Known about the structure:
Elements: H1 3-11, E1 13-15, E2 21-23, H2 30-42, E3 47-51, H3 57-66, E4 73-77, H4 87-94, E5 101-104, H5 108-117, E6 122-127, H6 133-146, E7 147-155, H7 161-170, E8 176-184, H8 189-198, H9 210-213, H10 216-219, E9 223-230
Parallel strand pairs: 3-4, 3-6, 4-5, 6-7
Antiparallel strand pairs: 1-2, 7-9, 8-9
Amino acid sequence: MNKITEEILQKRVVVDSEGKEYPLHSETSLEQGEFLTTLVAEVDANVCVEIGLAYGISSLFIAEAISRKNAPRLISIDPFQKVWHDIGLLNLQRAGYSRFVEFHREYSSDVLPRLLAARGRIDFAYVDTSKVFDVVLIDAYYLTRLLRVGGLLVFDDCTLPGVKKVVRYISRWPHLAIAHKHGVYKSSIKRRIVSRLIQVVPKKESIFSDSLLISDEKLGANAQCIAFKKMAEDKRDWDWHCSF
């Protein structure tokens, strides 16, 4: 861990360009930061994308993991960085990583199509931004196409409804597979009992929602932070569909 990250996590304070201090909040934990570092190393990543910079804690972990590569590149996307007083950018600068950070003060729905049109390829992506279902799904769509085969796509806050819905859906995409999880949880006993009872109901598929028929545990979508590995290029037929 670099000194900037260590100091911020210890003091739980971040500082803007004018020296004003703000209490640290909504940050990636040390344990999850180390989880991300391990994933970046696993795929030997050079080019990473992060959507959602905020105070830059997860960015610092990712940047540190690629900082010794010959040609590292961290593409950071956050249209709301001003709301965070540009402290995320400042922390990356203070840590000495600005030389390989490419920052976009735009929505990911504008940036990712441009990267794809430029035939960009990435090794690793981390999504920690809006929790709105369709926003996260659009990120998943483009990032999956940008990702090289063997690369990792990671989502945070997978316990929140919008993100969970995306994760449950893409867990069924044939070209992706859940590779790693952090912050694994189990459904409540009540929910597990209800799920078992539903299985014996005739024509259950036409009565109950998919979330009741197939548990998060069965899909492997039962964690705070979930990493998907791209197993192949997307070759689904035009009429492919699955319930989610």
